[in-house]
## 1
Amino acid sequence: MKKKIKKREFIIEKSLILFAGISIITTLAIIVTLFGETFQFFKEIPIMDFLTGKTWAPTLVPKSFGVLPLLVGTLMIALFSSIISLPLGLGSAIYLSEYAKKRTRKIIKPILELLAGIPSIVYGFFALTFITPLIRQILPQTQIFNVASASIAVGIMTLPMVASLIEDAMMAVPNSVRNGAYALGSTKMEVALKIIIPSTSSSIASAFVLAISRAIGETMIVAIAAGQSPVLTFNPLESIQTMTGFMVNMSLGEISQGTLEYKTVFAVGTMLFFMTLIMNLVAKGILYRNRERY
Amino acid sequence: MNKKLIRRRRLKNALFQGVLISIIVFSIIMLLLLLYQVFKVGFSHLSLSFITSMPSRFADRAGIASALAGSIWTISLTILFAIPLGVGTALYLEEYANKQSWWTKILELNISNLAGVPAIVYGMLGLAVFVRFLNFQRSILSGALTLALLILPVIIVSSQEALKSVPSTLKEGSYALGVSKWQTITGVILPFSIPGILTGSILAVSRAMGEAAPLIMIGAAGYIGFMPKSPLDSFTVLPIQIFNWTSRPQAEFQDIAAAGIIVLLVLLLSMNAIAIVLRNKYQNRMD
């Protein structure tokens, strides 16, 4: 009987290790598949042409594989969405942790969670059918597909994530610190700006980096609302194509393995993977280096 | 002089509070606008025949039957793969692994990195591994496996949190009675932590239900004119069907896209409601 239990325990422990191993295998598989195809891609297209070329036309004749238009498009979405998500996320977090009463928090938090839970395809629909017409009413020269509309939607979508990451950090600041400042006659604003924000600055920075990383990887909103024209422009009212937008657009048609199109999707995907990976590691590094201990 | 300064500081504080409140109000208005827009456009197209019809070239005849069935198939299989794997991994990390060892540290770092990988990259993984290498084709099975890997990190992390909340006194009490580790897990640890595990898992699964990008990457079709019958059938899901309709130039198709969104949102909300009900039920039992 005892032996039987011991044997069973042994088998269970080993199978749980196997389960845990799946996540390692996933990472390895991502790296192997991305690298394999990308390596093949760079055999055909010189890496400098890819990284510095200003024309992206992988399916036209003559073909051209300069990734800059996609990169600039992606970074514009990241930049303009941050203008919404970072300050508003920070503001929401300050309000929730410093100003809101318990009852107000109980109402507002589920609303933010709901905003975070809405699929990005729905934000894409909202951007195209609501935000874009609104922008075009104010600025009639705006193209139907444009960076601004998609950025606003991406910003609204990432706002709750920024807010909740920062709020968690702010709630972890002990009340004794606040009460000390109140006892000296500080207003809530002074406590928030001079004590809470400085003492949670690493969490705030890390949340900002994560939000930008999310915006870079966001796909459906930009595929719907930002357009599919890989033009090198810095005008947010024009149509562009992002890296993710290109990948989706290519996959809508049948692309067969081994073709240059297939490899191109993987090359762009590898770039996307690295950009987000580096940003996520930076976010973690910021947190790790400046751990605040009370 | 001093009084003036105090008044100014109070005024500043009030202004600051006003700014913060308007930020919150902005978020709430955005949510309401979004829901309003979807319902305004889509509600009149919602009908029983919309839910039971196949997609069509004609907007007034098009329905979401095949996409709805595809979504249900895909999500059921995703749950089947992702929850046992995720909870198992969390159990290993919390109950078995030596927290100080390099292997555990690598595992945890790896999982938190995987959580930050964009969904579309999982789609490329699925395309290369499940569709091509394992030759599952562009099937429900490939889609479900891809989505399972996508939400695995979320399930692991939320299950770990739930497992951490089990008081060590309960575990030690069990061990003191000579109960084995696995019996302690199934008899004490899991019953205590299941509300947390369920809540986290359902939220993760509802995220999978709204994903379109990874499934487009593995080649799920935009148009499916039949009901999927087995996991190896080709398929489409609600978000892809919605994307397909939204990206057509004709306004009528955007109307039915909104109707599709309503169906998707109702499904997601009811999943969240189930999460809340389950959590309350188990919580009452534990208290």
## 2
Amino acid sequence: MKISFLLNNREIELDVPSDRRVVDLLREDLALTGTKEGCGAGECGACTILVNGKSRLSCLMLAAQLEGCSVTTIEGLSPGDALHPVQEAFIEHGAVQCGFCTPGMVIAAVDLLRRTPDPDRPAIRRGLSGNLCRCTGYQKIIDAVEDTSRRRGKGKAS
Amino acid sequence: MKNAKNGILEIGKATPRADARGKVTGAEKYAADYYGDQLLWAGVKRAGIPHARIKGMELEGARNHPGVLAVLTCRDVRGSNRQGVIRQDQPVLVDDKVRHCGDAVALVVAEDRPALAKALDLIAVEYEPLPGVFDMETALKPGAVLVHEDNAEGNVLLKGELKTGRGEAALTECDVEVTAFFEVPRQEHAYLETEGGVALLREDGTLEIVVSTQTPFRDRAEVAKALGLDLEKIRILAPYCGGAFGGKDGITVQTLLGLAALHCPGRPIKMQWRREESFLAGVKRHHGRLHYRLGAKADGTLHALDAEIYYDTGPYDHLGGAVLALGLEHAGGPYRIPHTRLRGWSVYTNNPLGGAFRGFGVPQVAAAMEQMMDMAAARLGVSPLEMRLKNAVRRGDKNPVGVTLTSSTGVHECLALLAGQELWQERETWKAAARSFRLRGVGLACVMHGMGYGPLVPDCGNAKIEITEQGVFRIFSGVVDMGQGNAATYLQIAGSILNQDGDHLELVQPDTGKALPSGSASASRTTYTFGNALIGAALALKERIVRRAAALVENSGGGEDFTMAPGALVHRPTGQLIPLPQVARILDEAERISVFTFQAPVAAERPTADQNLQLHGIPHRIFSYGAHLACVEIDELTGKVEVKHYCAVSDCGSIINPQIVEQQIQGGIAQGLGYALSEDFIVENGRMATPDLSAYIIPTAMDIPDLGTFAVELPEETGPFGLKGAGEISMDGPLPALANAVADACGVRLFRYPLTAERVLQALAEKRGEGTGP
């Protein structure tokens, strides 16, 4: 079927089987391999993308569900070479090890910060609990998200 | 923003990792991200039965299915059809019989994944089921079903005995003796990137495999032998792994992909295991059964230890023998014990395959030994800390296998730093503040971990660094970065020596066609061994560049007058700047490359004459140390254990990048907490009962508390900038620290793990005299 949607702020029209998984569509048809697959069953969160601004698991979505939506993948999180503040914080705080969970984790953190203005550490832990990381023990990820939130608060105050 | 690119890379400075940017933007390509034009897909028919002979296979349906290019069996393999690191006993595709559910019986190549899935379904295998052997006790009985009929030792892959002093006989000389039996579970690696890769047989006959692996050079040799190919015709490329932890230490998809490529030349072929396939066919941390007897004198001095260790290695060697050997060597922990008898068996069964997993046989024995220490302390009426301080090894002491510790030995320093922590000092107050129906406890563990390959297998790094015509230093990494940050550390080492920033340094991921063999990414060796080699290569290149630059400047006064700067050389007396490209261009192509070999030193003593045990790694010379502290709270009504606070002090030598060391320590603790609390790869009659991440529970962000991590930076004289291994040590501590904390909270000790709510609740009920339940 033909579907059209907004992908990383770009209009896109595709002819794909309606039951093609979104994660395959992104990775294989559109070469956006920043979105990872870790389980294919909605358990790990590595394939998290933003659909209409909300975090969604692309391994559990089918192509037809994208019709008319705005989709953001890790590649489109910030324009050009610029980094999103969450990405900058992940680098600075050492929240990246093997990095395979990172794109999904960053997207989940962006969504968390959108929903929750000033999350404390337990709230960050809850907000990211759908994304598994096997390398970090999560601490530096929490540090990065907390710092992003703090800096954003300061930015608003000034 | 602080970025590695903005300054000279310096030793000892917390520096954001050079690989972080590519990973955080999704630009970094893992093996899973390689596809290729005209891509084909390969997949495996798994046995699904633990022990059976194959009577026949119906393949025509699959072969005739549209879109299927090849359906292959063992008959299509022209080499040995065997893989394995020490003993090659694992078939690429089953020939004689199936030995576990995850065995590969057939390989299919198809145009797309739907055709592949259908073809795999269409393969029908007729089995003659054989009685299986699913527990170690049965496997070791005379007349037991044999996993390998041709193995002279029956179902024993490796057995070993180490003895010091009067061995177990000295237990009779002790004032107190404690005895216990411990059972530790299988653990699944659960890296986020499952096993996978892409292979291509090129027109010139070169077989190229891009794969998520820890061991590209060893893979090349294994693929060559198993498939009957010329080693020189195989090229393995190893991008960053999306996690590995030992589970990619050896062959996963390589031989299968190679075989597929041989039958479908000219087109790239991809294989990516599904999560369930990764669980089914991938290796696990060994399930262990450990019998311990520990004796001490009345003054608290340890006197004798008798330990019997059994590891279930499943049906193939993989690295099961070496895992047992490291367990044996560490069975007595970081203590002076003059009389020991340490015996171990690595046992073949029809269970899932045991193999390398961060810790490599040590977490199991540390779980036992560290609880024995607490039990002995309780009998003697001394605190767990005093007991450890009294017996912990110092440099120059002999360890429990009788080898003198000649390298830096910081376990006392770790314990001292830990003892000063508020968590330890104020523990009684903290415990007493527990609310109703809550029990609080505090536990310690002390660990050591050997680094490298041991005395016989040469532990070598061969570094190669090039100055390009553009004046950029290019490092050809010989050791895979599976997430631990060694690649970024290599840049930091070279940057520090050559005084360069990130813009003038680049790293080429391990590629057997470009880099030099430097061993596996394992054994806590990656930065130690390759880092030492890289120092040598970088220093030699620097000297060459400076000498040549001197010839470019009149009356230069020789090389001593030059300083390197990012992208240039500075002639200090005149201030003249010579751009590096200018120097690079006057160097011959061969001169622009510098190589250096480092071979790790080995222990002078041999605690055993058994050559086989030596081959499997006994003894080590350099050890890292750690002291861990866990504070737990238990819900008396549910039995749930919550880790409230956790703190670890590590001796990993001097530190090159504090951020990366913290990552390693925190990550290892998290995996250790999972091992202690929730992770149990359950197998029933050879079949896995925890087939995916919904049944096998690894920690989420809600399960790990903030971790206090500290380092005592004792320099290791032989290490690069004083460093020694940091990759595994923190994995060894959490289970015993938690078990000791739970025992402290409950007043009763649990001997089977993980410490699930169910087990804790039952232990509490038994303690109250309410029986053992249903």
